Amino acid sequence: MTINIKEISDKDRNSVLHPFTQLKAFASGELGDPTIVETGKGIRIQDAHGNHLIDGFAGLYCVNVGYGRAEVAEAISRQAFRLAYYHSYAAHTTDELAILSDRLVKMAPGKMSKVFYGMSGSDANETQAKLVWYYNNLRGKPSKKKIISRERGYHGCSVVSGSMTGMSFYHDHMDLPLPQIVHTGVPHHYWGRNPGESEREFSTRRGEELDQLIERLGPENVGGFIGEPVLGTGGITPPPEGYWQAIQAVLKKHDVLLIADEVITGFGRTGSMFGSQHYGIEPDLVTIAKGLTSAYFPLSAAIVGEKVYKVLEDGADKVGAFSHGYTYSGHPIGAAAANAVLDIVEKEDLPGNARDVGAFFQAQLQEKFAQLPIVGEVRGVGLMGAIEFVADRKNRERFDPSLKVGARVSKAARDRGLIARAMPHGDILGFAPPLVTTKGEAEEIVALA
Ligand code: PLP
């Protein structure tokens, strides 16, 4: 298909409200024309001008099996011809949905029981909040409603999930966060450590701070804690040593549910199937999206642990039906896409590839960037990594934000043919290439970075 670039650009500028875009600069043309992305294959995409770009960010950390996978496209097409849609209310199902749910319950971290489906990470986290509240109402603890998340956490941008997100620019002018959501300190040793403090000591301190916060709020008022096993959008930051152990001990002590937001870390990105398995996390609830279908179809899920589900089922005599659900909960095409993607993840051992190629990639990033005078930290795990730029390496001083260093390095990489994301918080260049990336491709990414 030949695209009329001018016509598409004009239609777009006149009619699309683009997320996370400076609206005036786009409307006036200051940002240039929209990039019309036309095709994708493997780890590369091509725009309408015929430019090839290596996608070092897998879209938005989601196209894990790579672009152009015929197996997934065919599974979607087969299901669309056979049965494009039926709902899953009132115990209706499809074969693809039942098979997918059985797989997810068996493979998920912790002791899981049931899967509730949505369309995005945001709505799945919205569901998690409602589950925390519902669970505590049903077990006679109606005041246990506050949910704690971390500064620099990212959990989406709907009303509850946007409140969970711990960066103020996602709240400003949008009347967020909601009062039920409270934030605690970010687990980033590089910026947060006291002089001479080891990672383990820093993690212990973060645990103590959480304990004090819960005591201050009253344990009878705190129902849940949500965290990404590895902080993603807040800066691609693996947890310091001992962090999750310190946090989980406090949550257990105060009878607070742990929601693991595995939207990025699920399905192999850290080198383990789930980030929770990588870091010894035993969640009560697990959020998945992105890698579940590798973004071939919008599908997410809140996976519900045995402990929570039992209370829901036992409470049914009292409250009647579980009154929560979306038209597209358990969409059969999404389920077919997910089953095809999980077949690839398992057959091609993508967690194993993320571990092996990831170790090589991390070493290459370290070698090329760690000692540069404007680099404060190079960090990562599996196939997710970041370079953090600083004005003064010795004194850990940030660049003046108006210099937009992160955005400028990202733009320079793009001009060389690589998409690496300027993370929204700080001067950070982020990488999260598809999990099918080979060693040779990882070398290409580092060479272009
Ligand atoms: N949770 C995490 C950890 C994410 O990274 C994201 C998106 O980047 C979300 C939730 C929200 O997902 P969505 O954009 O599909 O609503």
UniProtKB/TrEMBL annotation:
UniProt keyword annotations, A-Z: Aminotransferase, Pyridoxal phosphate, Transferase
SUPFAM superfamilies: PLP-dependent transferases
Annotated Pfam families: Aminotran_3 (PF00202)
Gene Ontology molecular functions: transaminase activity
Cofactor(s) the protein requires to work: pyridoxal 5'-phosphate
Source organism superkingdom: Bacteria
Coiled coil, from the record: none
Family recorded in the similarity comment: Belongs to the class-III pyridoxal-phosphate-dependent aminotransferase family.
Cited NCBIfam families: PRK06105.1, PRK07482.1
Protein name, per record: Aspartate aminotransferase family protein
Organism of provenance: Mesorhizobium humile
